[in-house]
Amino acid sequence: MNARQIASLRMANQQIESSACTTPSEVVGHLTAVQAQDYRGALWSIGLRLPGSTVAQVERAIAERTIVRTWPMRGTLHFVAAVDVRWMLRLLTPRVIRGTAGRERQLELDEAVFARSSKVFERALRDGAVLTRPEMYDALERARISTASQRGIHILLRLSQQGLLCFASHKGNQPSFALLDEWIPASRTLERVEALAELTARYFRGHGPATVRDFAWWAGLTLAEARAGIAAAAQELASETVRGVEYLVSRDGPAVAAAKRAVHLLPGFDEYLLGYTDRSVALDPAHASSVVPGNNGMFMPTIVAGGRVVGTWKAVATNGNATVKFAPFGALSARDASAAAAAAKRYGRFVLRD
């Protein structure tokens, strides 16, 4: 394989070039997790892998509780399939929680505060109640638990990682929270070894070809844990060494993918870039500052042509329509410009059509 072939296989395995998925839960389940700190962008991450879909369709999947938004790994919001939420939380969040101990001490958050907060939310959210973040903070403040100086979000984060809370459907433009056991009453449970093997096989099925370091970073595992997962899932994986680096991919996926010059508009935190620690296959390091201005962790939406990032874009609401403005790194060919315009129309239909 060369870099272009790696990019083509990733586009295929990520269901961007063409998709076999027919529902939002199938898309999310195939990728295992879809990064979702940018809620609207995450809806489009799902929608671009589901031709003909709309925002309303993806949000129905949230309301119907087949996908759920929470903090399953790296302390970062993701969508996961509802059936996977508990085993992923149990496998991946303990290490994250240990890593936040110092910050929690700075905020004077201890196990007693988290226990008190749990009781507040168990009362406030029982019988299917759903509250927005300000309403959740109000409930804590009424119980004399301060939410100042980011204490509130850290409490919500910790209790979600522990499986008490999860995000529910939005209330208007506001995210809301529910008790996980009421919002998603049942989901799969896996023992640690089985869970690690499942996570590994699915990551390389939905993201391969990728390296062990890519997988470890994406999942928030140590390299030793990632290698243990690869060993446990070895029968499902194939490998190839490219310039001294081992790349792994699912045996169930395509051995090769046709190199296409298709143009796609990806949201800023899409798995195509965020699914790997080494993004050079898709993004020329010379253009990295245009995608992550100031290296501040905020990823711009990208124009991808033939698997390579060739520019950025943004949507501007004008008279009820979504107008897309392009910022290519260089002049687009007539063919790519036409394809980008078609991709923008598809995005507009996703955003605006019921």
General description of the model:
The chain is of the alpha+beta class and 354 residues long. It has one domain. 45% of the residues lie in helices and 18% in strands. The protein contains 16 helices and 12 strands. It has helices spanning 3-13, 24-31, 39-47, 55-63, 85-99, 101-106, 111-124, 133-142, 151-161, 180-183, 192-207, 212-219, 223-232, 271-274, 288-291, 334-352, and strands at 34-35, 67-73, 76-81, 131-132, 165-167, 176-179, 237-242, 245-250, 263-266, 302-305, 308-318, 321-328. It has a 4-stranded antiparallel sheet with strand order 9-10-11-12. The protein has a 3-stranded antiparallel sheet with strand order 1-3-2. The model has no long low-confidence stretch (mean pLDDT 94).
SS strand fraction = 15-25%
Q: Termini, distance in Å? A: 42 Å
Helical residue percent band: 40-55%
Low-confidence stretches: none
Write down the secondary-structure element order: HHEHHEEHHHEHHEEHHHHEEEHHEEEH
Alpha plus pi helix count: 16
Based on DSSP secondary structure assignment, what is the total number of beta strands?
12
Number of domain units: 1
The dominant shape is globular
Structural class, by secondary structure, is alpha+beta
Oligomer type: single chain
Report the radius of gyration as a whole number of Å: 21 Å
Strand count, sense and barrel status of the largest sheet are: 4 strands, antiparallel
Biggest sheet: strand arrangement: 9-10-11-12
What's the rounded overall pLDDT mean?
A: 94
